[in-house]
Design a protein that fits this description.
Number of domains: 1
CATH superfamily: Glycosidases
CATH topology: TIM Barrel
Largest sheet: 8 strands, parallel
Shape: globular
C-alpha cells in the first residue's frame, strides 16, 4: 500500500507502536491492540480528529528522492526542514512517531550506481522501478548513508521506530510475478554480477551457491541437480533478503538509533508443503501458489533469522482482512481467525494452511520466531492496493479488522487510509472505526 502514498501531496503514514513493555511473543497482546490510521497529513485538524477517536501514534513517511535528489552527500535543506517540522509538530502534539524512510523511492543518481539494476534469469529488469537493494554494495552503502542522515537530521531520540524493506512497496521481498513486464510469470531476481559472481557484492551477503544455474534446469556443471540442491538455492535466495534487512537495521544502529525497527511483510509467504513441491520440481514454477516463491518470502525461516540477528524487530503484517481472509472465512469451519495452536500446527504435515488467511499463517510464523507483530488492512480495493472482485469494501475492512487484530494478538492495527475516512464517498468514517474498536 506504500506505493499509493506517492499520490498524496504530503506523505505521512500513521502507525501504532508496540509498547516497549511488551517486546516479544504473546506477551505483546496482553494489553490488547492499539488503534491507528495510515496516511495522516498531521495537520492541526487531522491531529485533533485522530486524537478524538484514540489515535496516539503516527508514522511520518519520508522520500529518499526528495531528501537527496541531486547526488550523494547533498540534501534538499528545504525538504529536510519541512520533514523535521512535521515530525516535531506530531511529537509536540503528544503523538509518538514512527518514521517511514521511503527507501523505495531512490533518487536518479542511486539508480545509476554500479550494480543498481535488478536482473532476472533472462537478463530482464523489473518494470516497476525496483533496484537492487539486496546484492549491490553501492546501493546498500547509499542506503546506509541516507539512514545515517535521517538519524542525524531528525529528532531521532524522540522517534520510536523506523520502517525497513527491500521492495517498491517498502516491504520485504523481490519484485512479484510478471514484473519483468512481458507476461513471463516466474522471475528470479538474483542474476546480477554481484549475485552470481560476487562482483560488487554487499557485505554480509553470500553469492549464488550454484553460479550460472537457472531454476528449472536439471543439470549444473555436468551433474544432476537434486531437490536438496534446489532447496538450498532457494534458501540462499530468500536469506539474501534477510541480509538486506539486517543491513538496514545495522545502519540505523551504527547511526545511533535505538528504537524499534518495523518490517512490513506482505501476504502469507511460502508454505512448507509448497516449498517441498517446488524443490522437487527444481524450482521450475510448480508450487508457487501466489508468487511468494519468486518474491523470496520464506517467513518460516526469515523471521527466525531476523529474530536472532536484530534487536527490537517488529513484523508489520499487511494482510488484515485482505482477499485471502474473505476466502478463508467462507470455509467450513472458517479458517480466517488466529488460534493459539497455530504456531505449531502451521508447520505440521497435513494442516490445510493453504486455506488459512495470509494474516493467520504469517502471524503464526512471527510468533514461532518470538517476534511481536502489528498489522494493517489493504485499504480501498480500487485504490491500487491489490484488491480483487471479492475483496471486502473499506467499510467492511474497518468493521472486521479490529476482531482479526485481537484474535491474532497484534499489538496495533493500522487502518488505511486517513484520506479515505475523510472522503464522504468511502462509506466509512472515523466514528465507524471507533465503534468497530469498541465492539
Amino acid at each position: 500500500m506504500t506505493t499509493l502514498l506517492r499520490l498524496l501531496p504530503v506523505a505521512i503514514v500513521v502507525a501504532l507502536l508496540v509498547s516497549a513493555a511488551l517486546p516479544t511473543g504473546r506477551a505483546q497482546a496482553a494489553a490488547g491492540p492499539a488503534w491507528g490510521l495510515v496516511a495522516s497529513t498531521c495537520t492541526a485538524s487531522s491531529l485533533a480528529a485522530n486524537r478524538a477517536v484514540g489515535i496516539t501514534v503516527v508514522e511520518v513517511e519520508a522520500y529518499w528522492d526528495r531528501y537527496m535528489p541531486a547526488r550523494a552527500g547533498a540534501v534538499d535543506t528545504a525538504y529536510v526542514a519541512d520533514l523535521r517540522a512535521r515530525i516535531t509538530r506530531c511529537l509536540d502534539a503528544g503523538l509518538r512517531v514512527v518514521l517511514g524512510p521511503g527507501m523505495q523511492y531512490p533518487p536518479a543518481w542511486v539508480r545509476s550506481l554500479p550494480g543498481a539494476a535488478l536482473v532476472d534469469q533472462r537478463g530482464k529488469r523489473p518494470t516497476n522501478g525496483a533496484i537492487d537493494t539486496v546484492f549491490s554494495a553501492a546501493v546498500r552503502a547509499a542506503q546506509a548513508d541516507y539512514l545515517k542522515r535521517l538519524v542525524t537530521d531528525l529528532p531521532a531520540k524522540r522517534i520510536e521506530a523506523v520502517r525497513v524493506g527491500t521492495s517498491t512497496e517498502g516491504e520485504i521481498g523481490y519484485p512479484g510475478p510478471n514484473e519483468a513486464g512481458d507476461g513471463f510469470l516466474q522471475s528470479w531476481w538474483a542474476f546480477s554480477p554481484a549475485a552470481q559472481q560476487g562482483t560488487g557484492l554487499a557485505a554480509g551477503t553470500a553469492r549464488s551457491p550454484m553460479p550460472g544455474w537457472i531454476p528449472g534446469q536439471k543439470a549444473w556443471q555436468g551433474k544432476a541437480v537434486t531437490a536438496a540442491a534446489a532447496r538450498s538455492w532457494f534458501l540462499w535466495y530468500s536469506r539474501a533478503l534477510t541480509s538486506a534487512v539486517k543491513g538496514q537495521h545495522d545502519a540505523l544502529r551504527a547511526a545511533g538509533f535505538t528504537g524499534q525497527v518495523h518490517l512490513p511483510s506482505p501476504g502469507k509467504g511460502v508454505l512448507p508443503a509448497d516449498l517441498t513441491t517446488a524443490a522437487n520440481a527444481l524450482l521450475n514454477g510448480t508450487g508457487d501458489r501466489d508468487g511468494s516463491l519468486g518474491r523470496g518470502l520464506n517467513y518460516t525461516d526469515q523471521f527466525a533469522v531476523l529474530a536472532g540477528s536484530t534487536s527490537k524487530m517488529v513484523i508489520d503484517l499487511s494482510g488484515v482482512d485482505d482477499a485471502s481472509a474473505v476466502l478463508a472465512r467462507r470455509q467450513s469451519p472458517a479458517q480466517d481467525a488466529c488460534r493459539s495452536s497455530d504456531p505449531s500446527t502451521s508447520v505440521a504435515a497435513g494442516t490445510p494452511v493453504h486455506l488459512w488467511s495470509n494474516l493467520r499463517f504469517a502471524r503464526a510464523q512471527a510468533t514461532r520466531a518470538g517476534l511481536p507483530a502489528i498489522g494493517e488492512n489493504p485499504g480501498p480495493p480500487a485504490a491500487q492496493t491489490g484488491g480483487t472482485s471479492y475483496s471486502d469494501s473499506l467499510a467492511e475492512q474497518v468493521r472486521r479488522a479490529p476482531g482479526y487484530a485481537r484474535s491474532c494478538g497484534l499489538s496495533a492495527l493500522l487502518v488505511a487510509f486517513e484520506w479515505a475516512l475523510d472522503d464522504p464517498g468511502s462509506g466509512v468514517t472515523r466514528d465507524d472505526y471507533r465503534r468497530a474498536v469498541l465492539g
